[in-house]
């Protein structure tokens, strides 16, 4: 049913004006509504007095995303790390000035890949007793794994987390961060305020990201770096440079980077980006990082050789790989509120790519 709906939506409707069809009332589900675009998008000091840092407690979920972890530690997201689509979009806009459509695409992908889109809940960490299995076990018999679960979203060649096959893919790793500091010490810019070689630049990321790929290509026998993951991983390097930078100067000091990556807290005297950062802006920064040492999408074979992927002849290869090939095809069998939410989220993911929404076609229960 969803396949047909999405097909006709993509042919007949503009993404921005489409209203998902009304679902029959079914009890317990939560209808997901994309929040309005905020007018409050200028520079501003973060956190405000209402959002002090509070350490996560034993039951609180934290995961592989330093941006979401920081927002939860400061109460911009629920402190327990169990969050809704709307809460993510609002919090990343408020805390980091991430633009609305980019935020909606990431939050939509998170919800469909690793959350419960019927209840509008996803864990920013691992599996949680607060998030039950989807209706009719539509994505298999297990509860959603949260953003910490490897595959679909969390993937290989992260900056401060190991690949799942060789170590801890969820928590901050000192040894990897030390590498990033070494590259900063070698390629960073000088600052009279924070010190020589203390400014983290594009050049730092160009060298560090390439080194991380070379390391993992050798160490991780089952490395997967398909075009969706490759794009996300260079995008995340661009997030560090652009969303963690102090909005007052637009530059990122090593000290500020450490506050976010290691301590998962906003630094003192920190201002968010002065204008919203959208997909075009982040993609351009990510491309600049990648092009210094181009790496093509692929995966290791059984002999540890890196085999390149065939190009995908589609509207946008990263969009297609993530939203079509990585999301479970069984979502097409959804009914009622879940079907309605799936349509809303699939449209939200496609929007910033300028692509027609395409129905999920990936493996179920993985
Ligand atoms: C909008 C919703 C967001 C979602 C759903 C999300 C989700 C994720 C996930 C699942 C990962 C793990 C990927 C991996 O395997 O490396 C990740 C990594 C990352 N995220 Fe987010 N994220 C979001 C927003 C943000 C924001 C606003 C920032 C920065 C301000 C950010 C910064 C990062 C960074 C730097 C990494 C890479 C960490 C590393 O490689 O060690 N994210 N995110």
Notes on the protein architecture:
It is a single chain. Helix content is 39%, strand content 5%. The longest helix is centred in the middle third of the chain and has 18 residues, at 202-219. The chain has helices spanning 2-12, 66-73, 85-96, 100-114, 174-187, 202-219, 227-243, 254-261, 279-292, 317-325, 336-350, and strands at residues 82-83, 122-123, 189-191, 195-199, 224-225, 298-300, 306-308. Strand 6 and strand 7 form a beta hairpin. It has two domains: 46-154 and 314-365, Chloroperoxidase-like (Chloroperoxidase); 157-309, Chloroperoxidase, CATH 1.10.489.10. It contains eleven helices and seven strands. Helix 6 crosses helix 9 and helix 7 packs across helix 10. With 366 residues, it is mainly α. Bound molecules: protoporphyrin IX containing FE (HEM). Protoporphyrin IX containing FE binds at residues 64-68, 88, 92, 96, 98, 103, 106-107, 110, 147, 153-155, 158-161, 236, 239-240, 243.
Summary, kept brief:
By secondary structure, the protein is mainly alpha-helical. It has helices at residues 2-12, 66-73, 85-96, 100-114, 174-187, 202-219, 227-243, 254-261, 279-292, 317-325, 336-350; strands at residues 82-83, 122-123, 189-191, 195-199, 224-225, 298-300, 306-308. It has 11 helices and 7 strands.
